[in-house]
Amino acid sequence: LFRVMAEMDTTSPPNPSNVPFRDLALRYGAIWAVTGVFITLISFLTDTEPGLPNTPGIWKAVYSIVGIGIAVWVIVTAIKIDRDQQLGGFISLGRCLGLGVTTSLVAAVLSVIYMYIHMTLINPGYLDVIREDSIAQMSERGMSEAEIEQAMEFASFFMGPVFISIIQVVFTVFLGFIISLIAGLVMKRERTLI
User: Fold this and answer.
1) What is the pTM of this model?
2) Which of 15, 34, 159, 193 sits at a 20 to 30 Å CA gap from 89?
3) Distance separating alpha carbons of residues 28 and 101, to the nearest angstrom
């Protein structure tokens, strides 16, 4: 009752359609991407890049947990700021999803740009190591050189920067959708009309 009365006494919250979240999505998407770049550089400098076959599983798990933790923090923080500072304490599930997905799309695009730079300038042998490991695994399975060559021709598109970029964007946006859906279900606060 007191909450309803307090809501009536205060000025009405702004209409969400008049309050864009673009700047918030850009800012937090950039934070997510820059943090990812920093982690990628650390993994490169310590020779523990999670995409490489020689990297121990524990490091792959650590980087995955840290990456998901950063994604959760970024999206939850963006939703909280939007709800509490821009929308007067109210936010719908749809707005949470829109903000989370837009933030993750910004992070994905910036990350893809960096990954292209990383794979071409910083660590140009990255894809070669993956290809060599694939060839070694096929050899161990007893495949002939002709079969290996044919398999590698087929797999070359899937091991190229374009396909890796597409997968990274799709995965990041999907992760952002899942996180913002869960965060939105917890953090949404619909305005009650009397």
Assistant:
1) 0.81
2) 34
3) 11
